[in-house]
């Protein structure tokens, strides 16, 4: 009934990535024996999911844990409690965007649904970009190559685009402590001051376009990272070959 659904909604917790969970959360959930919750953790790899499951199990069934990460279809059949979600089809994406962004025009929604290819987070981010700048001309954008259209809408500010392009060049980019030299090397490559680079990366994290993994940052979803990296390789491929030699560690060079 509606009362039960409302109660479940109030007990839902969402974390954009595991590091976003408050350190005291699990102790609080264990101590509050009359409290139950549904905890959803995004950007979660296999190792992190196992750790979180151990914490949830310690709450004696009062915490329903849902972790979201990259997976393969076959895992659904061989591993219990694994569900592989296909990308949304075009019409479902349109329905979702109409419900969440009712002020967008049908042309805008159709364009976003087609180009984001079923990636919900990317579709939502593009829609939010349209909301921030409603005068974007869909017809004009349609005359440009499709990938550049999305990047132009999603990252209209040139410095933001440079930082995201830099972050897309590696599977993950060190930005803190002893691995920060990776990020500094890429910041110099795209001509952005290091403090600005860090600040923009944090803003992109708040928008859901950058993920965190300890001292590292990475572009998400993978489709966006691929688009951004391809854009750089297309424009500056010859220079990138020289950049690879400047990346500080063999591991980071191999992640190009």
Description:
- This protein is mainly alpha-helical and 256 residues long.
- It has 14 helices and 6 strands.
- Helices cover 57% and strands 9% of the residues.
- It is globular.
- The strands form 2 sheets. Strands 1-2-3 form a 3-stranded parallel β-sheet.
- Residues 1-6 have low confidence and may be disordered.
Short description:
This protein is mainly alpha-helical and 256 residues long. It has helices at 2-10, 25-31, 46-57, 75-78, 90-100, 106-116, 120-132, 138-141, 146-154, 158-168, 180-190, 194-206, 222-246, 250-254, and strands at 12-15, 37-41, 63-67, 173-174, 210-213, 216-219.
Write the layout of secondary structure elements.
Blueprint lengths: L1 H9 L1 E4 L9 H7 L5 E5 L4 H12 L5 E5 L7 H4 L11 H11 L5 H11 L3 H13 L5 H4 L4 H9 L3 H11 L4 E2 L5 H11 L3 H13 L3 E4 L2 E4 L2 H25 L3 H5 L2
Parallel strand pairs: 1-2, 2-3
Antiparallel strand pairs: 4-6, 5-6
Helix pairs in contact: 5-6, 6-7, 10-11, 10-12, 10-13
What series of H and E elements makes up the topology? HEHEHEHHHHHHHEHHEEHH
Largest sheet: 3 strands, parallel
Number of helices: 14
| Unreliable stretches | 1-6
Highlighted features:
6 strands, 256 residues, 57% helix, 3-stranded antiparallel beta sheet, mainly alpha, 3-stranded parallel beta sheet, disordered N terminus, single chain
């Amino acid at each position: 009934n509606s009362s039960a659904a409302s109660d479940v909604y109030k007990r839902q917790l969402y974390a954009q990535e595991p590091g976003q969970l408050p350190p005291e959360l699990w102790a609080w959930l264990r101590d509050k024996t009359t409290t139950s919750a549904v905890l959803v953790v995004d950007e979660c790899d296999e190792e992190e999911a196992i750790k979180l499951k151990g914490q949830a199990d310690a709450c004696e069934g009062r915490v329903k844990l849902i972790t979201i990460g990259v997976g393969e279809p076959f895992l659904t059949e061989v591993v219990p409690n694994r569900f592989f979600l296909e990308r949304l089809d075009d019409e479902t994406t349109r329905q979702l965007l109409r419900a969440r962004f009712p002020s967008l025009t049908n042309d805008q929604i159709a364009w976003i649904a087609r180009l984001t290819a079923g990636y919900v987070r990317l579709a939502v981010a593009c829609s939010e970009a349209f909301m921030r700048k409603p005068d974007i001309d869909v017809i004009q954008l349609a005359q440009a190559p499709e990938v550049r259209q999305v990047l132009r809408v999603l990252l209209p500010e040139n410095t933001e685009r440079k930082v995201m392009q830099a972050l897309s060049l590696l599977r993950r980019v060190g930005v803190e402590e002893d691995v920060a030299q990776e990020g500094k090397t890429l910041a110099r490559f795209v001509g952005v001051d290091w403090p600005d680079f860090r600040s923009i990366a944090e803003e992109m994290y708040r928008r859901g376009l950058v993920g965190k993994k300890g001292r590292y940052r990475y572009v998400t979803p993978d489709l966006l990272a691929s688009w951004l990296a391809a854009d750089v390789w297309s424009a500056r491929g010859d220079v990138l070959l020289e950049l690879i030699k400047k990346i500080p560690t063999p591991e980071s060079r191999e992640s190009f």
